[in-house]
Amino acid sequence: MPKRNSVEEPEKLTNYPQHITQLDSTLSDLLRLVTTNSSADSIQAAFRKARIGYKKIEFIAEYFNPYTAKAINGAAIYEVEEDDPLQKLVPPTGFQVAEAFVFPAYDSINKKALVQEIKLIKSSLNRLRLVNETTAISDRHIFDAMRQQLFRIISLGISGFDSPIALHSMPEAAASVQSLQETFALYKPDLQKISPDLSQKIESTFSEAIAYLQTNTDFTTFDRAAFITTYANPLTTYLAKARDALGIATPADLRAFSSKAYTLFDEGAFNVNFYAPSYQAHLTPERIALGKMLFFDPVLSGNGSRSCASCHIPEKGFADGKAKSIAFDFKGSVSRNAPTLLNAALQSSLFHDMRVNFLEDQASEVVNNTNEMHGSFKEAVVLVKQSQEYVHLFEEAFPESADSSLTEQHIKVAIASYVRSLTSLNSRFDQYMKGDKTTLTTLEVKGFNVFMGKAKCGTCHFMPLFNGAVPPNFAQTEAEILGVPGTTDTLHPELDADLGKFDLYKKDLHKYAFKTPTVRNVALTAPYMHNGVYSTLEEVIDFYNRGGGQGMGIDLPTQTLPPDKLDLNTEEKEALVAFMQTLTDTTGLTDVPRHLPLFPNQVVLNKRKVGGKY
Predict the structure, then answer these.
(1) Distance between CA 413 and CA 273 in Å, rounded?
(2) What UniProt keywords are attached to this protein's entry (predicted)?
(3) Are residues 223 and 316 in the same domain?
(4) Number of independent structural domains in the chain
(5) Based on the domain organization, do 441 and 339 belong to the same domain?
(6) Of 349, 413, 549, 607, which has the maximum CB count within 10 A?
(7) In angstroms, rounded to a whole number, what is the distance separating the alpha carbons of residues 541 and 456?
(8) How many CB atoms lie within 10 A of CB 506?
(9) Could you tell me if 103 and 110 are in contact, meaning their C-beta atoms sit under 8 angstroms apart?
């Protein structure tokens, strides 16, 4: 392992087990320093060395043993199994837990806990070693793992996601890239024969990327935009081209992010069908067209006046501009802010409380909700069948349904298909990342670097989707506890009463937890937060700058957002706002149907308004 295409016998990827052994030895040194009460400086230095050691094996560990990798380097937050009636807390383990004992200053009071974490990491290393002895790793796996690691570095590594206190992100990224360069060396001789120019480009770009990371080590001032566009994007592109030149197969499994894409910013790199419940729900132009008509048609509501577009207005980024949407009877409001539907398909959980996984179920929840649309899919099927135009549209959208193409499920699939088509990933920021350096100003580039660096926004709003879908697989969507207040009173803040995800599973650890929304198109979707408490991006930034609810003085020990103040200055705040405004992209998505299907002999029904009442 890996097995080379040009030879019959497999070749050992010797640097992986060697690096496991070296890391184990480094951890033993750290353990010795802690148990012998050595100086804080020596313990911190040993910890940094151990983390560097892990980064050399991370790309293989994460690819083949993600659960063990999580035990070694997972986020330092407690979890609870959603189906566990006993609500047993699952404590975090690994480097990130240990980091909190060592940085920013080591105190021997943490000695016992630190020793325990080091031993747990060593135990996990043994599992990696055992699995490595029995796992066959093909060339296809190696190239896939290398490229996924580069995507991990781009989106997580340089954001400080897994080094939140020590902020040792750049040296660790350098070590990771060095390990990838070592691995690529196995393929260099063959590639040199086929494409010497490409081989040289890969080698030189690896070396330049490592040098850049080793030279620019300060977390706050590191130019992430320059690193990504100058080194990381070319590397992921060159490795894909090398894979193809060597005749190595590309993984063919359905993924959120295509293994064929050269960079995170390629057109068509993300596949919304990954998040669909089945192949029968995959996109077709006919399903999108039908779903669009249904989305803007109030015929699905209980009073014939309200449509999906009543609360998801195209010109408002498919939100509605209100703190909380108007209720069904146009009296009062619903319980939460209407989120944008742009890129809503690119996540595995929906609604603020993450109560459903598929857009079909989201459509069902909204249409059937007495406070939102107060409709009935069963009644809708009977009514819609009276329109020959709708019947024809359903037959075109679901031709495989011989008995009946107009069913409750097909209505849901059609609406979901339209929402899945509302994917917008070609903003000015994306164009910059694709190589057009004219699309962003100096202030906007600075804002991106602040977003991914000092402000730590990128540790929850993961690039490039800028939502809670965790890279590089984007299969899991995260929730956070921020301590959002009920009002804008900063002198006497009170926690908003909405319990969030707790209402779904009744787990105490989920109290006040809400899904991390996308920041794309955020300039169009004010007001913000699940309760719409903040009217401007400046207010949102101030909330985070204060350390969230805890930082403002709210008693919320389960807050997952660090309560530390960010100390952003005026220019950094302005830059953040400027950057987030570059994420707007509604091109080709805001047009509405010119008419709605007619119903014979239904004068009143045929007067219904496209989009219903807002």
Answers:
(1) 12
(2) Heme, Iron, Metal-binding, Oxidoreductase, Peroxidase, Signal
(3) no
(4) 3
(5) no
(6) 413
(7) 11
(8) 13
(9) no
Bond from prior residue into 251 cis (ω within 30 degrees of 0)? no
The answer to whether position 179 is within a domain reads yes
Q: Which residue has the tokens 């077709």?
A: 284
Specify burial of residue 167 (Cβ count, 10 A radius: 0-12, 13-18, 19+): middle
pLDDT in tens, 155-178: 999 999 999 999 999 999 999 999
Q: 52 in a domain, yes or no?
A: yes
pLDDT for 180 beyond 80:
yes
Residues 173-197, mean pLDDT to the nearest whole number? 96
The CATH number covering residue 597 comes to 1.10.760.10
Cα distance between residue 220 and residue 394, in whole Å: 54
Judgement on whether residues 304 and 434 belong to the same structural domain of the protein: no
97 and 196: one domain?
yes
Residues 287 and 354 in one domain: yes
CA 547 – CA 542 distance, rounded (Å)? 9
Q: Report the range of poorest mean pLDDT among 91-95, 187-191, 230-234, 601-605.
A: 601-605
CATH number for the domain spanning 120: value is: 1.20.1420.20
Question: Cβ distance 304 to 605 under 8 Å?
Answer: yes
> 244 lies in a domain?
yes
Residue 6 located in a structural domain:
no
174 membership: H or E segment, kind and range? helix 169-184
Claim to verify: residue 413 and residue 432 sit in the same structural domain: no
Q: Which two tokens stand for residue 177?
A: 């890239």
Q: Are the beta carbons of 352 and 515 closer than 8 angstroms?
A: yes
Picking from 429, 415, 501, 434, the residue whose alpha carbon sits closest to that of residue 461 is: 429
Q: What is the mean pLDDT of residues 127-156?
A: 92
Length in residues, the chain: 614
Predicted confidence band of residue 132 (pLDDT cuts 50, 70, 90): confident
Q: State the pLDDT at residue 118.
A: 97
| Residue 6: per-residue pLDDT | 40
